[in-house]
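The records we work with from here on pair a chain with its fold. Here is one such record, which you should read through line by line:
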Amino acid sequence: MPVLNHPSAPSYNYHFNKISDSVLMDGKIRDSCKNFNYIFILFTNRSGSNLLASCISSSNNFNTPAEFLNHDEVEKALEIDPSLRTVGDYFSAIALNDNVDGTFCAKLSCDHLFVLCASGVMAQIVNKSTFVLIERSDKIDQAMSLILAVKRNIWSACKERPETIAETHNVEVQDIIDVCYSIVDQNNILESFMIDSMASSLKVLYEDLVVNPISCLDRISEKIGKPIPYVARNVAMKKQADIGKKVNKTKLISEVRNSLLTRKQQT
């Protein structure tokens, strides 16, 4: 059974704790769901996962991958259908409702993956799953973007507005460093899972996706053995903020890079 063997995996259990307060952590799913094919986008926040989800679903041949294991989404479903008593019940209901021609797509953070592994859902579908890990090369830009997203409570690049100088000046160097290390740690967890599970998997860089989405989708298509048509007009191709390239942040970015380099040399 695939598990999260990375030593930091148990620290990403926020949704697990919330969900386990609402439903039983029994992962038994319906037999029909065991025959589906699954595409799971593994991601960290502000890595471009929404863009990849839009690309995959642009032709309507696939459902739009969503974070269906956020605890608030689970709780809404329970209010609508009280018969959903277990994680397996909930997973089955979502997969049965959202799949397109027997393929179900979803987004999984470390936290979400922890729920599926701990409940036993993943063990039943891992052989029918393809995992696509999307990463962002510039972790500092990603960290800055995440910090600002938290401050504004705006999580989609398509909805965000340009940041102000005051907002960026209120970001501490240590905060950026801490987020950078968290991003790297989560990526390591996700990669460890892909290796340990021996599942069909690949990595996509956000920067590559922006430059050539068709090439990235072709790589995923090859893994799943099913074409993923790309309809550009249905994708909002707005890049995540390239914060490190803006002049008013040059000094801040330099401080972060120097601090990270110093820490790396000391280890």
